[in-house]
Write a structure and sequence with these properties.
The structure holds two protein chains of two kinds.
Chain A lengths: L2 E2 L7 H9 L2 E2 L1 E5 L3 H13 L8 E3 L4 H6 L3 H14 L3 E5 L2 H5 L4 H8 L6 E5 L8 H15 L13 E5 L8 H16 L2 E5 L4 E2 H5 L6 E4 L5 H11 L3 E2 L6 H15 L5 H21 L8 E6 L1 H13 L4 E6 L4 H5 L8 E2 L4 H10 L4 E4 L1 H6 L5 E4 L18 H11 L1
Parallel strand pairs in A: 2-9, 3-4, 3-5, 5-6, 7-8, 7-10, 10-11, 12-13, 12-15, 13-14, 15-16
Helix pairs in contact in A: 1-7, 7-10, 8-17, 11-12
Chain B lengths: L2 H6 L2 E2 L23 H11 L3 E7 L1 H12 L11 E5 L2 H6 L2 H15 L3 E6 L1 H6 L3 H12 L3 E5 L9 H10 L13 E6 L8 H8 L4 E6 L4 H5 L6 E4 L5 H11 L3 E3 L6 H14 L6 H17 L7 E4 L6 H10 L3 E7 L4 H11 L5 E4 L6 H8 L3 E3 L4 H5 L4 E3 L10 H26 L4
Parallel strand pairs in B: 2-3, 2-4, 4-5, 6-7, 6-8, 8-9, 10-11, 10-13, 11-12, 13-14
Antiparallel strand pairs in B: 1-12
The chains are: A alpha/beta, B alpha/beta.
């Protein structure tokens, strides 16, 4: 079962790059063969990530590999610093530089004093694990290992940060917009910094000025804890999938901030949530009620959507995680016993193939491979058949619940 | 970025002796060249019943599969591209067992006529013997398994991947009795059947044999040695043509996508000589008509300045022909520089002395435009961005389906159109419209 027929799970390095590319005033410099950079453009464009003047490669040739010549890394860093004047240059190792043991961090250390930009090195060469590891590493590096000067600025009153929004997540732009809308309507709050969808080094530097961190994925949890310890910013890690979870999410924020929720919002959510109880009640009475699902997503979306499915009376769920559960296990996160992760593609496809007359909430590959008696709802990347245009069709929050319900 | 400073670091054509003299515009590249892995996949796309089994990191596998999912020729999602993902354990202990297991899964599910076992950078660094693995699997299963090495750190771009994949196909071929046909070697995009050369060969009752890599199957490759002549339409197939000459004594003619009608005329003459046929009158007529066509339009192109980027043509042949038309090359972007290029470079040098740089680094080009102020850009760039600088793009991708004098006429028309566009853009800028 060594064959990979379709798309493999993206690597740690891919997760690092697609996260960092969203941070303006910075440049991502890959220390590796140019072909990978060129090839990656298609994926990043699909994910809605702009690369112009932000992504560069040094390329590596045989002389660099055999003789260990790293001069092109040094000159590329200096050149970017002089020509583009970014605040930060993110240097990313490659599988080759990792394998031949190039001390990318050491090389960068020797030139730190010669450049104005701050250099932050990511040694993930694509061999340490999947994209989830890479995303977590971005938060840890930015906030902890190599801290930016998180400046002590004046409090940005009534503002919040989003941590853990990843461009690798389907409809993340819409999710972020929904969070902003709901925070505005519920608490009169506005966004301070959204990581890692659309932000800048300046925004990251001012991250400590917000009232609260809204954490959307476990990869950002350690970063949020660090910001709480160091700057006293509380965080809320509740995923708003479905109406009741959205209310729970708002209540958690309300408690942390000691601010009241706009009652109009709560009333509206309760109004939408009420009929779901009826739906669950009728579920047992209808012979053709679909009570099973296959959900293929990241950890947080899996947990959030499975709770929502249960509220709807869909109780027989295969919760298949896109990434390894090693970190989830280490962090002792909930629901671990209910999740499935298949290292071998074939095993996962066998589970999908076993699904009949069920809901399949997954990616486009699953849509093509599933039994046609299933009902499909797209919730994950990769997408093949469509492109993403809208920023008002979330999966999270009130509108996310509306959207999902309309498809079931 | 300072365009003058970037140019000051570059050498001019008269100073270039080999590719090492050609500098990058900058050390930090965007987007950089394509890798040979992509080249290998482009070739396999045209060989209908073959499969690609890629061995590499999940990143290499992801991007390659993503590319093939969108290709009907590859069969889309469930199509002819699969992979073996190498992890840190395989890097330490070797990937042979994993490849073997994956291969058996693959042939059980897909039943391919041939498998290209494509190694990537990681495999080449750890030194797994991909050739031995391929040949032992071939012996074991009787399904041809052809090893292709695509490490990018040993070559400049995707072209070696194309060349190696085409070349390794010779291992499928066996000695056959000649049936008087011609093979078309090296056409990877476009349909040879739509070209002028095909129409002329067809009119002369010359049978077309294998078209590798664009539009053939494994059986046709196996029977390729039936041909009387190989027509090499791209230099990536030259190695295969030479191998077939050595192994099967099949002569070859280089009939690449030349721009200069003189070169095209010579290629036709050589081809019919090898076919032991008289040169058809229609070729003489086409030659004369094309020369007249060019002459009528030449005045519109005189002193038009251009930057050469990336086209489906032979870079130096095209630029040397453009020099003959008094079109001035300001900057050439290239990835190789061969002894054949030297001859063309001499022709260019009689009139002009352009800067020369490595290709696939368009980010810093933006600053160079402001210094050189060209009228035209040949290759892929962002049209709106260039328009604001008064530069028109010459679109030449359609020429991939052309061969013969039709190429010259197409090019001249494209140049005339783009030169007029550039004038209009400059006028608009002057009038504050753009």
């Amino acid at each position: 079962m060594a064959l990979c027929r379709y798309l493999p799970v993206p690597s740690d390095r891919m997760g690092v790059i697609w996260s960092l590319l969203t941070i303006k005033e910075s440049v991502v410099l890959e220390y590796g063969p140019a072909g990978t950079t060129h090839f990656s453009m298609g994926l990043f464009s699909n994910l809605g990530i702009d690369q112009e003047n932000q992504l560069f490669t040094t390329h590596l040739d045989e002389e660099d590999v055999v003789m260990g010549d790293s001069s092109r890394l040094v000159s590329a860093v200096k050149e970017i610093d002089e020509n583009l004047k970014p605040k930060v240059i993110f240097v990313i190792a490659s599988s080759i530089s990792s394998m031949i043991g190039t001390d990318v961090l050491g090389i960068c250390n020797t030139i730190r004093d010669e450049v104005d930009a701050k250099i932050i090195v990511f040694t993930e060469g694509g061999l340490k694990g999947d994209y989830s590891i890479g995303i977590e590493s971005v938060y840890n590096k930015l906030f902890k290992d190599l801290p930016l000067p998180l400046v002590e600025v004046e409090k940005n009153e009534k503002s919040f940060n989003i941590l853990g929004a990843s461009m690798g997540e389907y409809r993340i732009d819409s999710d972020v917009e929904e969070i902003k809308r709901m925070m505005g309507e519920s608490f009169g709050m506005h966004i301070n910094c959204s990581m890692c969808t659309e932000t800048s080094i300046t925004d990251v530097e001012k991250i400590a000025s917000a009232d609260i961190n809204i954490v959307l994925s476990f990869e950002a949890l350690e970063g949020a804890k660090y910001l709480e310890e160091k700057y006293g910013i509380p965080y809320v890690y509740v995923l708003p999938y479905g109406y009741s979870a959205t209310m729970k999410w708002l209540k958690a924020i309300s408690e942390k901030l000691d601010r009241k929720i706009n009652p109009i919002v709560m009333k509206r959510l309760m109004g939408k949530n009420m009929p779901l109880a009826m739906r669950k009640m009728y579920a047992g009475m209808m012979s053709d009620f679909v009570d099973s699902s296959y959900i293929f997503a990241n950890y947080d979306k899996l947990c959030g959507l499975s709770d929502f499915m249960e509220e709807l009376g869909i109780t027989k769920n295969h919760l298949v995680c896109k990434h390894s559960l090693k970190r989830v296990t280490k962090l002792k996160l909930p629901k671990l016993d209910k999740l499935e992760y298949y290292e071998k593609e074939k095993d996962r496809l066998d589970v999908l193939a076993s699904m009949k007359e069920s809901y399949v909430l997954a990616d486009d590959i699953s849509k093509h491979l599933m039994d046609k008696s299933n009902t499909f709802v797209k919730i994950s990347h990769p997408i093949m058949d469509t492109s993403i245009v809208a920023k008002h069709l979330p999966l999270m929050g009130e509108r996310g619940a509306d959207y999902i319900l309309e498809h079931l | 970025m300072d365009g003058n400073k970037i140019l000051a670091d570059l050498k001019k054509l008269s100073e270039i002796e080999n590719i090492k003299d050609v500098k990058q515009l900058t050390s930090a590249l965007f987007p950089g060249t394509h890798c040979p892995l992509m080249g290998a996949v482009l070739v396999a796309r045209g060989i209908k019943d073959s499969m690609v089994l890629l061995v590499g990191t999940d990143e290499c596998a992801y991007y390659t599969k993503k590319m093939t999912i969108g290709s009907k020729d590859f069969g889309g999602l469930t199509g002819r591209c699969a992979s073996v993902i190498v992890d840190s354990k395989d890097i330490t202990f070797g990937s042979s067992e994993k490849i073997t297991a994956a291969f058996h899964e693959l042939i059980a599910e897909k039943k391919p006529s041939c498998v290209f076992l494509v190694s990537t950078c990681v495999i080449e660094i750890i030194g797994d013997d991909i050739d031995s693995i391929a040949y032992s699997l071939w012996d074991e299963t009787s399904i041809p398994v052809l090893p292709v090495h695509t490490e990018h750190f040993k070559c400049v771009n995707h072209i070696p991947g194309i060349e190696r994949t085409i070349s390794v196909c010779s291992e499928l071929m066996k000695k056959e009795e000649c049936d008087g046909s011609v093979n078309i070697l090296g056409q990877r995009s476009g349909d040879f059947r739509s070209t002028e050369v095909y129409k002329i060969l067809n009119a002369e009752d010359v049978k077309i044999g294998m078209m590798l890599p664009c539009g053939c199957d494994v059986e046709e490759i196996k029977n390729a040695a039936k041909a009387k002549v190989n027509i090499v339409v791209n230099s990536t197939a030259l190695k295969l043509a030479k191998t077939m000459k050595r192994k099967f004594d099949i002569p070859y003619v280089e009939f690449q996508r030349f721009a200069d009608p003189e070169k095209i005329y010579i290629a036709y003459k050589l081809l019919f000589e090898k076919l032991d046929k008289a040169l058809p009158k229609s070729i003489e007529e086409k030659y004369a008509n094309t020369c007249a066509f060019v002459q009528e339009r030449k005045s519109k192109l005189e002193n038009v300045k251009f930057i050469y980027g990336n086209t489906p043509f032979i870079p130096f042949e095209l630029v040397s022909y453009m020099s003959k038309l008094d079109m001035q090359a300001m900057l050439m972007q290239i990835s190789t520089y061969t002894s054949e290029d030297q001859e063309y470079a001499n022709t260019i040098g009689e009139k002009y002395n352009p800067y020369v740089t490595k290709s696939a680094n368009i980010a810093p080009l933006q600053y160079v435009y402001d210094v050189l102020k060209p009228d035209l850009y040949l290759g892929h760039e962002f049209p709106a961005r260039l328009m604001k600088k008064g530069i028109a793009i010459v679109h030449t991708d359609r020429a991939s389906s052309m061969l013969g004098f039709e190429v010259t006429e197409f090019l001249i028309q494209a140049f005339v159109k783009a030169a007029a566009q550039s004038k209009q853009y400059k006028e608009n800028i002057k009038n504050g419209i753009m």
